[in-house]
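Incident review: delayed structure delivery

Summary: a single-chain prediction request sat in the queue longer than the usual turnaround. Root cause was a stuck worker, restarted by the on-call engineer. No data loss occurred. The affected request and its eventual output are reproduced below so the record is complete for anyone auditing the incident later.

Affected input:
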Amino acid sequence: MSGGAHLSLRTRAAVAAAAAMLLALVGCGVGASPQVDVSAPQLAGSSAHYCDTLERDLPTEVADMWRRHVTTQGVAAAWGAPPIVLRCGVTDAKGMGPAVRCDVMRGVGWYSEDIGDGYRFTTIGRATPVELTVPDAYAPESDAAVDVAKAIKRAIPLHHPCV
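Output delivered after worker restart:
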């Protein structure tokens, strides 16, 4: 054996353990997290412009969770696991109408609905609607809406305020 060309069994085991630990740590990082599949529509015109602007302005952290990569045809974003999901230009809100309660958080009006395992918040009065789905794991779920409100307020014009 010359100059370390051959490593002892103990040294090889230590190197393998260190490499496995490094891979595990890297695997927990944001860049290595699996992508989140999100269904969001492809938009055109002013809605596409507003949503593109919003996407560039969104925070890197929501509810103390880092942003994740998403796969979608439209504008969407996700943070954490389970994912907090934002979709722009779409709403699946049930029961939303002119007489619903509107909660204003940091200048953005929201309709909120309990969806069983979390809450869905949908903007009210914006030129293009934005939807934010927040799992119960992030209670109080409204904190996530507060975290994205500044970007929404800057990117998407107000058509009418909450009443």
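Verification: Confidence is low (pLDDT under 50) at residues 11-32.
Action items: add queue-age alerting; document worker restart procedure.
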